[in-house]
Amino acid sequence: MKIATYNVNGVNGRLPVLLRWLQEERPDVVCLQELKSPDDRFPSEAIRAVGYEALWHGQSRWNGIAILTRVGEIHETRRGLPGISDDNQSRYLEAAVNGVLIGTIYLPNGNPRPGPKFEYKMRWFEKLTEHARSLLDTGLPVVLTGDFNVMPTKLDVYKPERWVDDALFAPEVREAWFRLVDQGWTDAIRMLHPDETIYTFWKYLRNAFARNAGLRIDHFLLDPSLVGRLAGAGVDLQVRAWEKTSDHAPVWIELSDI
Fold first, then answer.
1. How is the cofactor bound (predicted)?
2. Enclosing domain of residue 152
3. If DSSP states are collapsed to H, E and C, what string results for 104-128?
4. Among all residues, which ones are annotated catalytic?
């Protein structure tokens, strides 16, 4: 089963790019972030026309996540994180698909730091970590994926010295990442590519993509039961070069059959 994550940066504005990628690469399950679309404007019919059913949690102008599949039904298990009852931002969606529990994540950016946005990011990260622990406790096969807005190590950022004060590379954020991972999760990209420079995001400014001046902020975390099934992982770099594309590229993993 091939599972992909893609911060589409506006599902309606980037719809031709999304549909082209779906048709060319045919991932089995896709997690989307930054839909920037209210629920009633999500392009479910266009997505269905290329072979995918969809579950989505939208928000006007900002945020928004979705799960697409072409390999079976989607059974929603959670919409939003527990413990943040006052949260009106669409950042977490979870469903069972083809025998795997999948959570798609759009973790807050947190800039400027310090400030209320950074405090919100850290609170959200804490609640994600608490929920992730409960998912591990179920013993079910689980994938957590999406835009985590964190570069875990210096290997994950071009010129890390330029990011020391940024909320995506702040010590507190990287420490929160490792608290999460150390519960028993495996970073799929780093498991298969431990020493490679791999980026998933490049700013539109200063020809960043052509210079490969990027960040790795889109991640896959696997529970222990799935680690032995990890058969491949990579980034569809070509999509970032397409016209009117997102500033992220799709990231994917392949899980072998049991």
1. Probably binds two magnesium or manganese ions per subunit.
2. 2-255
3. EEECCCCCCCCCHHHHHHHHHHHHH
4. 106, 147, 248
Q: How far apart are CA 130 and CA 75, in angstroms?
A: 22
User: Tokens representing 142?
Assistant: 């689980």
The one-letter amino acid code at 212 reads N
Q: How many residues does the chain have?
A: 258
Is 166 annotated among the ligand-binding residues? no
Reported as a pLDDT band with limits 50, 70 and 90, residue 258 is low
The pTM score is 0.97
Q: How far is CA 115 from CA 63, 96, 125, 166, 172, in A?
A: 20, 36, 16, 12, 14
Q: pLDDT digits over 132-155, tens only?
A: 999 999 999 999 999 999 999 999
Give the burial string for 239-250 (b: 16+ CB within 10 Å, else e). bbeeeebbbbbb
The answer to whether 34 is a known ligand-binding residue is: yes
Task: Find out whether 247 and 201 touch, Cβ atoms under 8 Å.
Answer: yes
Q: Which amino acid is at 30?
A: V
Q: Distance between CA atoms of 251 and 179, rounded to whole angstroms?
A: 23
Domain harbouring 144, CATH code: 3.60.10.10
Confirm or deny that 111 is annotated as ligand binding.
no
Total structural domains within the chain: 1
